[in-house]
Amino acid sequence: MKYLKIPALFLLISFHSIAQNNSTLETKNLSHNAYVIKNVNIIPMTADNEVIENATIVIRDNIISSVNSDSIPKNVKIIDGTDKWLIPGLIDMHVHNLADIRMSSNYPTKGATLFFNNQDFMLLYIANGVTTAFELNGRVEHFGQRNEIINGEVMGPRIALAFLIDGGNSGNYANTASDGRQTVRIAKQQGYEFIKVYSNLNAETYKAIVDEARIQKMKVIGHIPTVFKGNTRDAFVPHFGMVAHAEEFSSQTDRYTNDVAKEFAKLAKDNGTWVTPNLSNLVYIAKQARSLDSVRNLPGFKYVHPLMQSKWIVSNQYNKGTSPQRVAYFDSLVDFHIQLVKAFKEEGVPMVAGTDSGTSGIVWGISLHDELKLLVDAGLTTKEALTSATRLPAEWLEIDDRIGTIETGKFADLVLLAENPLENIKNTRKIEGVFVNGKWIGKERINIMLSELEKKNDLNKNDFDWNKRAEY
Ligand SMILES: [Zn+2]
Question: Quick check: keyword Transmembrane in the entry (predicted)?
């Protein structure tokens, strides 16, 4: 997005985990255990989405083994689901995860000097029912994080990884068609599943990247390169699979009208391109442009690593040099994005929920619930909003045979809610517990972990100052 620079902070990694030995043991034991959730109302999020009332669901070794079967295995852990609602684990289609970093000068073999505890921010996903996340600026370190989660050292979501390619001269860049194609092939060899195209690509390189990704069977998500402004149609080439922000459209025009919104929706529809509206992003940006109190008062701010807390305050790119004109501009984008979502809906462009979490003022996990609420406010039904964070993203990621709905044989990625989210989308926040990676994490445990994290961040607060980062 136009105002977003990829911070160097995403460059790194952590192999730390809390209570590593204990959690590994626990995972091993639990993976052989079975669970039953009794008397629960299942919202399966299948296409017909018939709610199954007072159901019994059996989970064995991380898989949903039966729904309303007569045979209930013995020696199971029983979870009472009376008057509660079960939805598939939520999917955030746009995240940026922290990774360990060195910001001071380098020498060969130096490596990172600042280590993040992966469990700390992964906890925020789980605490908020997010069991799958799509990292849109994947680095080699993120493969390590994903492995830690898979082998049970860290409790966290499933992670899909996209390799970001931009034009210009920083990061993974390509400025010719042949360089673009080679960069895609390297990404494929390194194990990435997806390609993310970025704003500064030239037209020829962009098209070559999208075409090479087609050949390599990698789906493409990303920005609409700036060069296409005034010629947006040219960016909609076959195999451009997903636009990563509504803002990509608003950056392509100076006319924020319904007619323009409809034209864009038609372009996406005709090309089979999906959209991650990411409405919350611009809403947060407009708030940050108004006042930094919007960041300080975020409900999840206390859970954010102190260095990031410091960065979001002392180096806030939206608040720096702000003016009433700038605030008004952001507000006009917020309004136009609502028109875009209405147009996408009318045209039948599939939309998925994504947050850009990890960027300034956007907290992992919790922000997805803001996004769902904004999608409903923009005209989606509660069912459509839930679909945008469950079945549809699973389909786009091509893992819909494993996650995205509650059906026998799928992974038991599940969120138990105290109240029905189809009645009010805000009920997605009323989480009683989450099933992830074969484990049941109840509300009590989540709250204990969150309050420990809050205490730790508070204790460490004075050790981190973004302005002194060159010393770290
Ligand atoms: Zn992003």
Answer: no
Ligand 1 geometric centre to CA of 359 (Å) = 7
Number of domains the chain contains: 1
Residue 131's identity, in one-letter code, is: T
Distance of CA 56 from the midpoint of ligand 1 (Å): 39
Q: Is residue 22 part of a domain?
A: yes
pLDDT at 32: 57
Whole-angstrom distance, CA of residue 176 vs CA of residue 165: 12
pTM greater than 0.85: yes
Output the CA 96–ligand 1 centroid distance in Å.
Answer: 6
Q: Which domain holds residue 276?
A: 8-471
What is the CA(94)–ligand 1 centre distance, in A? 6
pLDDT, tens digit, for every residue of 220-229?
999 999 999 9
CA torsion angle 72 91 439 79 (round to 10) = -50
How many Å lie between the centroid of ligand 1 and the Cα of residue 362?
Answer: 11
pLDDT of residue 94: 98
What CATH number does residue 314 fall under? Answer: 3.20.20.140
Type of residue at 408:
T
Residues around ligand 1, an ion, CB closer than 5 A: 136, 356
2 is a domain residue: no
Q: How far is the CA of 358 from the centre of ligand 1 (A)?
A: 8
- Residue 1 located in a structural domain: no
Within a domain: 3: no
**Least confident residue range of 36-40, 111-115, 141-145, 256-260:** 111-115
Average of per-residue pLDDT across 69-79: 88
